[in-house]
Amino acid sequence: MIQGILSISGKPGLYRLVSRGKNTLIVENLQTGKRMPVYAHDKVISLADIAIYTEGEDMPLGEVLEKVKVATDGQPVDVKKFGSDEELREYFGTILPEFDRDRVYTTDIRKLFSWYNIMIASGVTEFKKEDIAEDEAAEAAEAADAAETTQE
């Protein structure tokens, strides 16, 4: 599940949310396991909040990553084997034929495959949001945050 997986602008790799402080987040690098604080001025985004442009409605990143997993049988994607950007875009088109070829850049596709490889290597293999259990967990986390702010 990619809800707790974060991308931090200016920092390479992906991070797992460990804890929240007053004005900081404590995150753990998925590749190295090192923990560090992230401050309010850092641009942080959850992968669950990202979507890929398609010809119809935008597709959540979790669904796209699930399609990549099915297409690759859960194996990493070797981006270097593609000789050109056009070959990479054609391969992505076999995975997600409806992606918007004008608004999705090759760098976006490379980043998506890079994130996929990082998550597979770190043992994250469930990308879609689990319907009921995850919603209850999110509501519980929000309730805990609300209780924490009222106690301060």
Topology:
Blueprint: E1 5-8, E2 15-20, E3 24-29, E4 35-39, E5 44-46, E6 51-52, E7 59-60, H1 61-72, H2 85-95, H3 106-121, H4 131-151
Antiparallel strand pairs: 1-2, 1-5, 2-3, 3-4, 6-7
| Cα distance spanning the termini | 31 Å
DSSP helix count?
A: 4
The helix-and-strand class reads: alpha+beta
Q: What is the typical, i.e. mean, pLDDT?
A: 85
Amount of beta strand: 15-25%
Low-confidence stretches: 146-152
Q: What is the number of strand segments?
A: 7
Globular, elongated, flat, extended or rod-shaped: what is the shape? Answer: globular
The CATH class of the domain at 50-121: Mainly Alpha
Q: What does this protein structure show overall?
A:
This protein is of the alpha+beta class. It has a domain at 50-121: Arc Repressor Mutant, subunit A (Orthogonal Bundle). It has 4 helices and 7 strands; from the N terminus they run E-E-E-E-E-E-E-H-H-H-H. The protein has helices at 61-72, 85-95, 106-121, 131-151, and strands at 5-8, 15-20, 24-29, 35-39, 44-46, 51-52, 59-60. The strands form 2 sheets. Strands 4-3-2-1-5 form a 5-stranded antiparallel sheet, with no helix packed on it. Strands 6-7 form a two-stranded antiparallel ribbon. A hairpin with a 3-residue loop joins strand 2 (15-20) and strand 3 (24-29). The relative contact order is 0.17.
